[in-house]
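Before a colleague's protein record goes any further, I have to sign it off. I want your independent view on whether this chain really folds as the tokens say. The record follows directly below this note.
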Amino acid sequence: MLKEKKFYLTKQGFEKLKKEYKSLNLIKSAKIKGEIPQILHSEDVNTEYLSFHEDLNFLEVRMTDLEHILKNTELITFPAKNKQDIINLGATVVVEVNNQEDEFMIVGTLEANPVLGKISNESPVGKALIGHRVGDKVVISSTIKTIYKIKKIEYSLS
């Protein structure tokens, strides 16, 4: 049997997806309770009917995706105090790259947003940093070789 993929989410990310699911469920219920367009309008297929079913299908697909994610979520928790000197999911990390400091939080793929300073644990940088400590130098090679020197590791709710 294939192992289900785990989705790593912060408590805030999990709550956001639950809220989205509830919202979509309300929309779906309202749509179904409303007037359903007839399939035929004169001799042609009614475009309102097609649009109605397209919208309903979109809602159902997204809700099915969310159900799968919510059932297979593992909440990101902070490690014990004596292990908070090691980078893991949920860590906010300050690194030095090309003589400049950069700060980001390592999260699961669903919450990754580099613009907001959140990188995925599956990204090349996130994957390479996990398991390292302050002072470690981590080489990340893609098209060019980049050295990340870890300056600070912090676990906090913000």
Observations:
- The CA atoms of residues 33 and 149 lie 58 Å apart.
- The two ends are 38 Å apart (CA to CA).
